[in-house]
Amino acid sequence: MQLQEIARVLRSKNAGPCLVTFDLIFDRSEDFERVRSQVARLRSEVAARYGRSENEVRVIDYAPAQAVKITIPRDIMSGDPGDRDVYGAQQHAPLLEIEV
Amino acid sequence: MSAIERLVNEFSGGRRRPLRVLGASGQLGYGIPTPALNEGLRRNPDMIGCDMGSIDIGPHYLGNGTMAPTRVGAKRDLRKVLKAARQLDIPLIIGSAGSAGAAPHLEQTVDLVREIAREEDLHFRMAVIPADIPRDVVKAAIRTGRVHPLDTMPDLTEEEVDAASNLVGQMGVEAFRRALEAGADVVIAGRACDTGIFAAIPIMLGFPAGIATHMAKIVECASLCCVPGGRDTILATLDDEGFDLESMAPNRAATPSSVAAHSLYEQADPYEIREPAGRIDLRNVTYTALDPRRTRVSGAAFEPAQRQTIKLEGARSVGHRALLLCGAADPRFIARHEMILESVKAVVRDLVCEDTEEDYKLFFRVYGADGVRDWGAAPDPLPREVFILGECIAPSAQRAEEVVRTTKQYLLHHGYEGRISTAGNLAFPFTPPEVVTGSAYRFNVFHLMEVDDMASLFPVEIEEL
Fold first, then answer.
1. Measured distance between the N- and C-terminal CA atoms of chain A, rounded to whole angstroms
2. What are the residue boundaries of the Acyclic terpene utilisation N-terminal domain, all occurrences included (chain B) (predicted)?
3. Which positions in chain B touch A21 (Cβ < 8 Å)?
């Protein structure tokens, strides 16, 4: 199953100007549990898709919202010359097709 | 007696009652929907707060000293909340004035407040709290190892401190509290933690700091914590054990899951909120539905910091920016666009650098291929059309314009291999397709500074209107 098939919310946004953070929010607890149980694999998928090392990828599960949060460094700081997404709100697309 | 003095007196005898806090706007200047604001005012609130700024909008506003919304929009919203607060005679607190909260932003905001007061015949005590941090204070802190980089920033140097066009610190609850203790009816703060706006009064009145700060963190975004999320006014009703949230727009519901999800928003860690005076631990927070539209939140705990710190933010100029806006629909051009753009870059360089050095940067973002992300590989299949945004950053506006105008001409007529569309490679939606946008900036300060004396960094200035 792809993340985009089970997540109600799959979004990206800056967490400060140096980091971009992804929120995956699930309606069904079994989907949340399924993703939560695969954090290690999720981390390596994200690292590969965003050109980062695994230790730069932080994954936190957050049960109160049935959510998983992933945070990585931005390639270019928000608004620096050459940046393509100052708010970081459109950096989530590489996550959509990750299989879980 | 000022509004805040009355509140303090009411609570000083140990008498407790719930406190009603109205979050009127999370982005003052972009419009406050009137029906929800009016509903909020009917609920007899004890204070109104508005957040006006953020670092998320990028370095331009901080560097350039300009507001993100228009002056007209900011004045319209300020008029709404000022009239409301004075009519009810309750404190109005505005944080991160003018989008980035440095001296020019604060001055523009305070000017608007003075204008409105004159036009509406409003009279009140205003406290203004600048957030500009003196350069010598930051440099002294660098020399004693009291400035630390945030996230992926490098160490701060004295050269970067001098280079910043504006350099601010985020004030916390303490600064708002001093302003309120001076009897202010209206507080206009420079760059501030959004939580300070809403947590200062509750903490003054003896509400637990953890709960008050958690409430503040949610209501500063107005009804964004609801489903559907939006910018309508929100009401928080705070007691000593927790707080109840209710959007003042009837179509928005604060549900346990929507409020919990808000803890994720623009935060790297949903389990804590970091403040100058300490951290709020959210691990034991519970969200309970009171009814389909209202949620009760409790369980946040405050842990004081060993050392008080403030976040420093600074932006420096990196030159002047000019743009080229154009599109293409020829499949041969689209297939070869990377090579074509590289060739044109070289042609332009040879022309504009005949007797000067290459003193500019020229970027292309090709929407349809890599405008939003650097994907590292060409799209497959190729898009039917592409939009090309050329961007030059150069030491002067004239230089940047020279580069993009030259680029336009040579990209239009570049003869690439396999070309059959020999009259021109580009579609211009209008002419001139070149735009000079002004100074360009980048964040060069995003650091934590240890602070012993907050009051000296964030002085409160009182003005009677």
1. 6
2. 76-201, 255-413
3. 264, 266-268
